[in-house]
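Researcher: Re-running this chain for the archive, since the previous output was lost when a drive failed. Same request as before.
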Amino acid sequence: MNRTKLLSKLKETPRWDVIVIGGGATGLGVAVDSATRGYSTLLLEAHDFAKGTSSRSTKLVHGGVRYLEQGDIPLVLEALRERGLMHLNAPHLVHHLSFIVPRYQWWEGPFFGIGLKVYDALAGKLNLAPSRLLSREETLARIPNIEPEHLLGGVEYFDGQFDDSRLAVSLARTAVHHGACCLNYARVDSLTKKNGLASGVRFTNTETGESHTAEGAVVINATGIFSDHIRLMDDEKAAPAVQPSQGVHLVFDRSFLQGDSAIMVPHTDDGRVLFVIPWHGKVLVGTTDTPMQTPDLEPRALKDEVGFILRNAARYLARDPKESDVLSIFAGQRPLVRPPGKDGGATKAISRNHEVLVSESGLVTIVGGKWTTYRKMAEDTLDQAAVLAGLEDRACVTEKLQLHGWRSPNAGALPDWLSVYGSEAGEIQALVASDSSLGALLHTRLPYPLAAVVWAARHEQARTLEDVLARRTRALLLDAQAALESAPAAAGVLAKELGRDDAWAKAQVAEFAELAKGYLAA
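Model: Regenerated structure tokens:
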């Protein structure tokens, strides 16, 4: 995925079948679907792939136990099916994870036990493993540091876990492999129209400042929390369609969760569930659900949100986590579909369903949804967009499409940091074999070698230090201070790969240091 070559392709293509605005989960999913149907496809992302919400999720591929309790059976059915397909199509990035719901009241056994059996049944043939009741002894053996006082036992069920920004990179490379042109740092400035109908976009290559115009049969707005911004470009009277909802996560040392199972906390202050999850050798705890008035590309955790997570996690962990134990804090905003006439208010009850909107000019906008259902969201969007644009009717093929890097789960275990590269893991190792200096770790508290920086620049369209440390690797999310300390070494390697000078590298370190402040505990 070479950006220079993709820019050349852009200039050589006078007109596209499909233009996608937005390079998060939804936009990339649409680009993959479009390209694999054989449509000429251009995707434009103003920042980096998955820069926003799509790199800040709870890292779960799930049907949604909470939505089952709310009675949203259609959403749970759809999500459970998509969960199974994601595991089949990207096993190097999506895997099974055991969750345990601890029981401290007698009635929780039958309540959660029956509910999770329904969850199993809804998954059908794509169910990961059956849920089961655990005794007190079994629960303590599986999670040795669970709060033991008054513990009666637990209920175990299974869901999926993944690396969100790595899946985004895999989707981008899949789309490019099938002929799409996917560009990051390409900011759409306006829509072009002919006879009142959307006919293309004007955008800026923010690396060079160069302006471009691209014509297309249909323009798809997949910009998540910024969807209304694009809709207002199209129609200055467009009513808001998105309600941003902030989710915050805290990352701790692995010692806070002994064992290989996650904990699902069923009762919190605001009635939503909380997860305590092992992820890349650390422990991730979240999430919150705070309504926000305006979308923010780099949202920051509110003090109340941090307190909420610490307070509720402490009820279930024998060792109470403190703010001083936090290795990283990250926040993202969900692009929930705004209910008609609703302005702010609680967001935990707003459905996670998605909607496809079509404006009078023919601009197609996809809003709502979640990572688990990205593929189905893309399919629904393309089905409508193709009809609207008069494109040749071609069936969606993504249900059985192996994503870039696909590697058989039976191919043998890899180190955790390396497993996300899937079938290309051997090529990363070959980089180190050819140059031993690239085997040096970015930091003693991080698993990533300098080879990961080289690979990100050469093959994954990483253009900045943040791209490398926040999304191609997950250094910033795993240990913000360690990522900050590794910045000079990583910037030096990246500058060499991109043909930049020392001044550029120093500027990148300064910019990253400012960014990292928002991920450090107070």
